[in-house]
Design goal:
84 residues, mainly alpha, flat
Length: 84
């Protein structure tokens, strides 16, 4: 594998760009599509960010019934109000 050499000046410039991006007001984040997707709760009208639980890979058990039962319990615990 061939690695391209990067000069100290280029590293400093990239670091400055990265840090300056962190200084932008949060208002700009929404204008460029970085605000989280939100869904409305029907009963209250409150909008909450959509949070995924990684079901595509984490919970991919295929046809293995034992894995499926274990993962069903994990999902039950996730929505159970008794857990902190």
């Amino acid at each position: 594998m061939h690695l391209k050499k990067i000069s100290r000046r280029q590293i400093c410039r990239l670091g400055a760009y990265a840090c300056s991006g962190l200084l932008l007001p949060p208002v700009f984040a929404g204008q460029i599509g970085l605000s989280p997707e939100k869904r409305t709760i029907p009963s209250s009208g409150e909008k909450l960010p959509v949070v995924g639980v990684g079901t595509w890979r984490t919970f991919d058990a295929g046809n293995n019934q034992q894995k499926r039962e274990t993962l069903k319990q994990v999902l039950r615990n996730l929505v159970d109000k008794k857990h902190p």
